[in-house]
Amino acid sequence: MIFSVTILGSNSAIPANGRHPTAQVVNIRNQLFLIDCGEGTQMQMTQFRIKRTKINQIFISHFHGDHLFGLPGLLTSYSLMGRKEPLEIFAPRGLQNMMDVILETSGSHLSYELTINELDADVHKKIFENEVVTVYSIPLQHRIPTCGYLFKEKRPLSNIRPEKIVELNIPFSEINAIKDGADFTTASGKVIPNELITFPPKRERSYAYCSDTSYFEKVIPQIKNANLLYHEATFMDDKAAIAKERGHATSKEAALIAQKAEVGQLLLGHFSSRYINLEPLLEEAKTVFPNSDIATEGTVFDVPFGK
Ligand SMILES: [Zn+2]
Ligand SMILES: [Zn+2]
Questions:
Q1: Which part of the chain has CATH 3.60.15.10?
Q2: Does 1 have pLDDT greater than 90?
Q3: C-alpha of residue 277 to centroid of ligand 1, in Å
Q4: CATH fold label, 3-156+202-302
Q5: What average pLDDT does range 110-137 have in this prediction?
Q6: What is the arithmetic mean of pLDDT over 288-292?
Q7: Which ligand is nearest to the CA of 20?
Q8: Which of 66, 120, 122, 293 is catalytic?
Q9: How far is CA 138 from CA 60, 127, 183, in A?
Q10: According to a count of CB atoms within 10 Å of the terminal CB, is the N or C end of the chain lower?
């Protein structure tokens, strides 16, 4: 069962040092979800072979350009490519107005239905659900209203024991119901409990995205036990004062949030252009939270099952 995150951009503010502004793609059982859309996102999608037509939902954290300025281009490219499937965007309040102006003044017409769901960036709540995932907003502390997002995988289906299909003569039409938890009734009327004919499903996993934000402990209960946490680490801890002033976090602060929320793995991202080599940021985080990694562009991170 695929549940992974592909990093398309991990730099803050400007494209620099071979790194791009923020964008990433979450893949849950081959359904793709785009988080943020900084400048260059389309080129990164091409480079890393992301099938952009598989994206039907986009989640924007806030309106700073390094998270947003690729969006109008992506929306109009979809039109030029003849997209027909509806597209949904989730973002703090104000995006509808902004996109109306951009599309109107640029004379752009979309070939598909676009729905913009504006969120109250101060509220933690369920904002989207389909058959594979439930998504929650996570209020963050930044210079303008900003939402993080928590992706919770729906319970994966059980695997049916192949020998039981033969032994009990289970018809094909019953397979999906059994995978979904149903018991099986044999031709003679005997009820076989589900647990005797299936392997139990693996646990549901979750992925939390927290960027941009200063060190903000209110997120901890909302991301508690997430299997993977992406947290911004714009600076190292010797720049903690600057980080706080600008509504950003340090590598050590990201690790403290990971530790207190007892997540499985931490991914550091949103790096300041002042850092060419990111190794010191990783080392700093690891002194607090050993299972940390750098969100390197093009890398696909599988959301781990355990801690
Ligand atoms: Zn940013
Ligand atoms: Zn920002």
A1: 3-156+202-302
A2: no
A3: 19
A4: Metallo-beta-lactamase; Chain A (3.60.15)
A5: 98
A6: 98
A7: 1
A8: 66
A9: 12, 10, 38
A10: C
